[in-house]
Amino acid sequence: MKVLFLLPPAEHSLRKADMNDNGYGLGRAYLMSYLKAHGHEVSTIPFNFRSDEYYLGELDDQLKTFNPDFVAITMFSVNRVMGYKCVDYIHILHPEIKIVVGGHHASALPEQLIKKYPFIQVVVGEGEVALLDIVEGRETGKIVQRPLIQDLDSLPFPDHKCFFDAEPDRKNATMVTSRGCPFHCSFCSLPSVSHRKYRKRSVQNVFDEIKWLKDNLPQVKNIGFQDDAFMLDNQRVIDLCKMLVENDIHFNFAVSGRVHPVSDELLYWMDKAGMHMVSIGLETGNQHMINRANKKITLEQVENYFALAKKYPKIVITTFLMVGLPGETWDTIKTTVKFIHKLQKIKYDYIYDATPTFVYPATELYEMMKEAGKIDDDYWLTDGDCPNFTLEHDLHTLMEMRRYLLKRVSFLRIFTPIGFVTQFFNAPKNLLEVVWYHPENIKYALGDSFSIMFPRMYRILRGDKIERRYEL
After folding, report:
1. What is the pLDDT averaged over residues 408-432?
2. What is the number of alpha carbons within 13 Å of residue 127 lying toward its C-beta?
3. How far apart are CA 271 and CA 257, in angstroms?
């Protein structure tokens, strides 16, 4: 069988014209390699940040030249509108092609999708086994779900090469070394897919994929691990780092995860192995809000992480921030600013953005919005943008809070008057340390600071006509 895989572009307000060398959707890449390993032909549209017209044009070409038997569409809440357009386009012009929809949004609202499109099949949860059963005719049900894959080593490596063939200048590869997360944050839709079940690949299997990238894609310089909880098992990360060092494997690694557990030994080996870009989920500097979000971390644990990492100047830590979680006020925003400044005095916290909190189906925040009458399930059938949590503040206020926060904590605002005064004089040594070891970040700070101080000129020079919710 021939299967065409689609990851439609996100809503217009989240696209950027300069995001070609982006992550390529590992879920799709795994599905492609899995079906190829079972003898099926696969194809995809590799670019996800182009215009609707470009994407539909590419889709039309693929439908005519590749002539697929199935089209498999990955649907998230932020790309569902373009996903709907793709379903309509395929069914109207090529009704003989079978359509399968999966992804977080499909897993959260499968019945709604079937009601809207009775001719499709929806995969709930992980897709490899379910999609194979559909393609090979063993499953004809409208909603298809299979048990989570326990032995992740049994899966073939994702189809990296397809995306590098499409973009030979690409330097960034992405990987996952585990699936799932045992926690249940109020804003996260992951439990609708992985049901809080954390599963790990073996260290050898992860190393073998890194070695494959080195041997087969020499243009790769950077590898980003997209695990939801990469550092949850400290010893596993240490063992991987040791194997990389012993085999003289060099990449710039970016990792993300939780602040606890952590040890000096973990950070020592991460530093040795080149895992110098570390992102951790903080969301807010207010402990009460952290507790309400069910994150299961403390501010003391965050401080401890930074204190341990202080010994390793090449490691750059960024904390993810959200604006507008339940309990947010101007006082909590100012508390977050103070806490970030406290962290930056320990070791510079490289903040680049703070996101107004999104609301996804199958999350606690969504249920709160529904109970308050702010949204209902029918909203997801419209072409409206993925909503923000506006139960306590409207979007305008959230954006004002975001601007206030970023002006005072973001490295990208360092060349603005407020940014320079509040950050450079707060922790000059730690700030200069980041610049010394990672000078490439200066250009991003210059561009972003210029866009803040001269927004009209910036837009004219960039030639950008798209208005975005979360910019400036």
Report:
1. 93
2. 27
3. 16
